[in-house]
Structure formats: C-alpha cells, structure tokens
Specification:
373 residues, Aspartate Aminotransferase, domain 1, Aspartate Aminotransferase, domain 2, 12 helices, 5-stranded mixed beta sheet, binds pyridoxal-5'-phosphate, 7-stranded mixed beta sheet
Length: 373
C-alpha cells in the first residue's frame, strides 16, 4: 500500500480482497446483537454486540489506519475522539498542553472539564514558543490550526516530547492523512475530525484516533467501547465510500485555495490573509517541509460583520456555513460562534468548483460588498 500514490491509496484503502459475486465495498451491517453460538458464546464469532463490534466500522478503521500509518479507532465525531483521547490519557495531577489558537470547543472542554477533575491545562500558541515539556503528560497540537492556520514543526516537537517523557498527539483534521503523516513525523497519536475533508461531502460526522502503540490503541478502544461514542454503521459506510475520492477532492480544493489566495493577496480590501501554501505566509517554511499537500482552507479579515455578510450574500458560489473541507465552497465568520476571532474574520473553505469560476465569483462578490473599493 505505502508504495502507491495518493489516488491509488485513497481508492483501495481498507477494501476486502476481491471475491467473485461480492461488491467492492460491502454494504453497511446494521446490527445491535448478532447471533451467538449457543455453546461457545461470544468466543465463537468476531461479532457479539454492536457497541464493540461492527464489520463496517472495522473496514473504515482499516482504511483510515492504512492512510495514517497506524491502527485506527473511529468515533461518533471529532469531538468524541478528542475528548475521548484526553480522558483516556489524562489523570488528576497531570499537565496537558493545548493550542491557544485551536478549535474553540476543545479549549472550552479543557477549561470546563479537565481543570474540574484536577488536570493542569496550559495553552500555547501553535507557532510557539513551547515551554519546557518536563512534567507534561500530553501535548496536543493542531497543525494547521483551525481557524488561524498557523503550523508547528511536528518532528522537532516530537523529539522534545520524547526526551521529556510526554506524549505528542496531532490533530490532523485540516491536513488530512494525505496532507500530512504525523505518526511518520514522530507523533504518538493522531486525532481528527473526519467530518471535514477526510470524507468531504458535508453529510456526516466522524472522528478518529490513530497510533502505532498497541497500548494506546487498546486504552482508546476501551474508552470508546465503554462510553459508546461510536459512529453508526451507515455513517461508517458512507465515510468509507467517500474516502475513495479524497485525492481528487483535495487536489482541486488545494488548487482553488492557491488561486483564491493569489486573488485575496492582490486586494487592498482584504487583510490578514493566511494560507500555509503561500511562500509569503509565516507558516510556509515549516508547512512546505512537513506537509505533502496544502489544505483548501484559508482565512482573512474583511473588517466587520456587515461586510462579511454583504460578501457572502453577493457571492453565487460561496455559501455561509460552518465546518470545512466539503465539495462546496463555504465561508464562516467565526466570531458568530463565540470564537475569539475579530468580527470580520472569515474562514473560507474552497470546494471543488472550477477554479476560474470560483475566483471570478469571489472577486465580483468582494467588489459588490464594498462598492467604494
Ligand atoms: C481541528 C478540529 N478538530 C476537531 C473538530 C471537531 O470535529 P467534529 O465537529 O467532527 O466533532 C473540528 C471541528 O470543526 C476541528 O476543526
């Protein structure tokens, strides 16, 4: 598998061996209990009960695990995976380092829940500087970070974490396993929302944890099975079906982001443009070294909420929606969700529309949003 290109790997990830008369990807198996062998009980077959056991889920886990280069466990959402990982690893008295500029609900969970059970929570900007990791149990980074798109050098941080006896987990949501392989860069764990570019059709929620450590995977599995934070069989199947086009989707999204970034950089009415693939971007030196491809997401500032609304309203190909990584281009004014971003801050997620159409539409919408410019 690893010798193949991204398109081949996406199409074939996790599929069973070809068998005459069988579909390429077996349909979803819907089961709470399964038939048991009356004499052997659960020992007699791989499936006993739906919370720990589902063959559709296992195929998806094989697929994501192949792409990340580790063993994978899928969860009902990215939040279920991240909070599950934090609560699996952390105990009262432990210290955890989290991104100060990362996904807001993770930060809120840490201050509301982790601190309440006696975990010491430290927030560090994704781009650093990182403090001494002595005495730290877990470092969780998001790279590129959502929504600010800063990055951190994973290999360098992994070396520091290992030396200090800390675990390093990388949120790979924005990059996807085709954009970046944190386990190869030395991270102990990958955690991500599969709701975004991994599955890319804006029609399901999914999360996962992946690792090369059997011990960590076993602990995460135990957490997932006892809390029941599993995705349903249909969502797992839909996610697996969607993986096949990931290389194609990401290719177009990234090309669109590059063209949109060039447009936005040329406009005096746009400030604060961030896209890690732009050589002028502060994230570029690290991103271009550790990432295998650039994301379709960029961020910028239009000054105030009204101007953002006028821009989205005028656009024909940009719709107002949160989340990112889908087939359709979306814009999200993050401050409306209580995120600590400025009022005019926009996260734009490029879809798979034709590049020329998208660039022309965004240029026209920016003109319409500010007739004086
Ligand atoms: C970087 C990052 N991690 C985790 C999540 C949470 O994922 P989910 O919405 O699937 O729970 C998100 C959601 O936007 C995210 O952007």
């Amino acid at each position: 598998m690893s010798e193949w290109g991204d398109g081949t790997r996406s199409v074939h990830a996790g599929l069973p061996e070809p068998a005459p008369g069988q579909p390429f990807l077996p349909g979803p198996v819907f089961a709470a209990p399964y038939h048991l062998d009356p004499w052997q009980g659960p020992a007699g077959a791989p499936n006993g009960y739906g919370r720990p056991d589902n063959p559709t889920r296992r195929l998806l886990e094989a697929a994501v695990g192949e792409l990340e280069g580790g063993d994978c466990r899928v969860f009902a959402s990215g939040q279920a995976a991240i909070t599950g990982l934090l609560l699996t690893v952390l105990r009262p008295g432990d210290t955890v380092l989290l991104p100060a500029d990362g996904y807001f609900p993770v930060r809120a969970f840490a201050t509301d829940m982790l601190e309440a059970i006696g975990v010491r929570v430290l927030f560090v900007p994704t781009a650093g500087p990182y403090p001494s990791l002595d005495g730290v149990r877990l470092v969780l980074v998001e790279t590129p970070a959502n929504p600010g798109l800063d990055v951190v050098d994973v290999a360098a941080l992994a070396g520091r974490a290992r030396a200090a006896g800390a675990l390093l987990a990388v949120d790979n949501t924005t990059a996807t396993p085709l954009g970046q392989r944190p386990l190869e860069l030395g991270a102990d764990l990958v955690v991500a929302s599969g709701t975004k570019a991994l599955t890319g059709h804006s029609d399901l929620l999914l999360g996962y944890v992946a690792s090369r450590s059997a011990e960590l995977v076993e602990a995460v599995t135990m957490w997932r099975n006892t809390t029941g934070a599993i995705p349903g069989a249909f969502d797992a199947w839909l996610a697996h079906r969607s993986l096949a086009t990931m290389d194609l989707r990401l290719g177009r999204q990234s090309a669109n982001a590059e063209a949109v970034a060039a447009l936005l950089a040329s406009r005096p009415d746009v400030t604060g443009l961030r896209w890690p693939g732009r050589p002028e971007d502060p994230a570029y030196p690290v991103a271009s070294k550790q990432m295998r491809r650039m994301p379709g997401v960029l961020s910028f500032d239009l000054g105030d909420a009204d101007r953002v609304a006028r821009f989205i309203d005028a656009a024909r190909l940009v719709v107002a929606a949160t989340s990112f990584g889908g087939l359709h281009t979306t814009a999200d004014r993050r401050a409306q969700w209580g995120d600590d971003t400025s009022a005019g801050f926009v996260r734009l997620s490029c879809g798979v529309e034709d590049t020329a159409d998208l660039v022309a539409d965004i240029a026209a919408a920016l003109d319409a949003a500010d007739p004086t410019s």
